[in-house]
Design goal:
The protein is α/β, with parallel strands linked by helices. It has a single domain, classed as TIM Barrel (Alpha-Beta Barrel), CATH 3.20.20.80. It has 15 helices and nine strands. It has an eight-stranded parallel beta barrel, surrounded by four helices. The structure holds (3S,4R)-3-hydroxy-2-oxopiperidin-4-yl beta-D-xylopyranoside. (3S,4R)-3-hydroxy-2-oxopiperidin-4-yl beta-D-xylopyranoside binds next to loops.
Length: 354
């Protein structure tokens, strides 16, 4: 009897362990070879968005960042408030750390993001001046930042998230102070600072809002018609397991119909779509996540290869994700779990990028 109880207890422990919220390591029919990486497998660039603090302090994180990817984006370190904290002060130390890390393993470095309505320092929000002063401040920021990285950064997200989900131009501070055509002028100034740089418009939601998709495409075509230097579109793809595959496919195809480079620029996939505190990383969720990663990778792979700028994953391990840290949601949106083990999603994504 005592023996039976121990066996039952052991069985329960095993069951419980297999149901933990860690995001279990690879356990499916599709398995990436342990000695191969995403960068080695993919026919296009695979990037990661990185936190400078984790690069500096976490060896496992740095190891994966170095090894698995061949493109790198700063998650926050190149945003306005990070590089330009005071009107007369530029601070590139964190951003330079990322650039040097990426250069150490010969990665492409993608700049993110010059003009956005978030991550603005107080001095910008409180800026007083006429339209010429605003224009000068806007241009100085773009010019100085693009110039600083001129030798190392060959692509930039110039304008980020200019549209609302309903397709209207977002009423940002930039729009209020500079007028609706600020987007075109941002591209012009970035191009003047570095004519060799590929310049991107970056936004989210084009895979679930057709109004936003149409607005982005119309704007891009208008910029092209006017001879404004724009070379690519970033589809952030902060998506979730229930977003329709048909719409993901159709949005990527339509974005590609502009002829520009297409970057899936911030890929992560939420599983806890109802944002429940009780959510678990069940085998069903694990498989749905893996399937979605594979679908997105394969669908992207079908775009014309000359337009494939690459896929960038928005951070590395589940515990590093902005969905967990910033949006405060319980979730498992990444390719690696919080122990930096490859998840089933990694293996499926790996099979999709070949
Ligand atoms: C997020 C970062 O991941 C967070 O760490 C930060 O605190 C807020 O911004 N769209 C973007 C990214 O273009 O810059 C955002 O990054 C996520 C949404």
């Amino acid at each position: 009897m005592k023996y039976l109880k121990s066996v039952i207890a052991l069985f329960l422990v095993v069951v419980l362990l297999s149901c933990t919220d860690q995001g279990s390591p690879a356990s499916s029919g599709i398995n990436a070879p342990a000695d191969k990486t995403l960068a080695q497998a993919a026919k296009f660039k695979i990037g990661c968005a990185v936190s400078v603090d984790l690069l500096r302090t976490n060896a496992a994180y740095l190891g994966l960042a170095n090894k698995e990817y061949n493109s790198m984006t700063a998650e926050n370190a190149m945003k306005f408030d990070a590089v330009h904290p005071e009107q007369a002060t530029f601070n590139f130390s964190d951003a330079d750390h990322i650039v040097n890390t990426a250069k150490g393993t010969n990665k492409r470095i993608h700049g993110h993001a010059l003009i956005w309505h978030q991550a603005l320092p107080d001095w910008v929000t409180n800026f007083q001046g006429d339209s010429a002063a605003w224009e000068n401040m806007f241009k100085t920021h773009i010019t100085t930042v693009v110039n600083h990285f001129k030798a190392d950064i060959t692509s930039w997200d110039v304008v980020n998230e200019a549209f609302e989900d309903n397709g209207s131009l977002r009423n940002t501070l930039w729009r209020q102070k500079l007028g609706p055509d600020y987007v075109a002028r941002a591209f012009k100034y970035a191009n003047e600072a570095n004519p060799n740089c590929k310049l991107f418009y970056n936004d989210y939601g084009t895979e679930y809002s057709s109004a936003k998709l149409t607005a982005v495409i119309n704007m891009v075509n208008d910029l092209k018609r006017r001879g404004i230097p724009i070379h690519g579109i970033g589809s952030q793809m902060h998506t979730h397991i229930n977003h329709s595959n048909t719409m993901i496919n159709s949005s990527l195809q339509q974005l590609a119909s502009t002829g520009l480079l297409i970057h899936i620029s911030e890929l992560d996939i939420r599983t806890n779509t109802a944002n429940l505190p009780t959510a678990t990383y069940s085998p069903t969720v694990e498989k749905a996540l893996a399937d979605k990663y594979k679908y997105i990778a394969q669908t992207y792979g079908k775009l014309p290869s000359v337009q494939q700028f690459g896929i960038t994953l928005w951070n590395i391990g589940d515990a590093d994700s902005w969905i967990v840290l910033w949006l405060n949601q319980k979730d498992w949106p990444c390719l690696f779990n919080d122990k930096y083990e490859r998840k089933m999603a990694y293996n499926y994504f790996y099979s999709g990028i070949q």
